[in-house]
Amino acid sequence: MRFAADSMLGKLAKWLRLMGHDTVYLGRSDIKKIKAALDEGRIFLTRNTRLYDLATRRLCEKRKIYFVQANHPKEQLREVASRFNIPLTRTFRLCCVCNFALKRVSRQIVKDLVPEYIYFNHKTFYFCAKCGRVYWPGSHAKRISETLADLLPVE
Ligand SMILES: [Zn+2]
Fold this sequence. Notes:
The chain is an alpha/beta fold. It contains 7 helices and 7 strands; from the N terminus they run βαβαβαβαβααββα. Helix content is 39%, strand content 18%. The radius of gyration is 17 Å and the shape is elongated. A 4-stranded parallel sheet has the order 2-1-3-4, with helices on both faces. Strands 5-6-7 form a 3-stranded antiparallel sheet. It folds into 2 domains: 82 residues, Rossmann fold (3-Layer(aba) Sandwich), CATH 3.40.50; 49 residues, no CATH class. Bound molecules: zinc ion.
């Protein structure tokens, strides 16, 4: 899915990218920015009641504008994932910092970009051509999987 996040939802935007969902961070939004995002097929996420009311009234797109109730980023992720049926799994589709598509690269290419022990212990890497960040299946794995495990329902 594609999203556009209002100010105060920067962390949620990162999490959504991590799940593979194209999410732009609008920062301080206005009707024009929101309209452009909706035209791109995005769902606008906001914590601002005034802006929510204004946008739903002016743009008449109630289905595409979502008011996030939760205050904490982790709870916001749980709320949005459940509302839009998003599986809570990490993907390597998008750079979680700049929302740019990641490219799978061989380790020779990232040799000088990652610590030596990472280079020797991993075969698959993902590279963001926009900001130069390198990702691999173990990067931030502990923190991410702990947060996700917390959010998943107990079976
Ligand atoms: Zn990037």
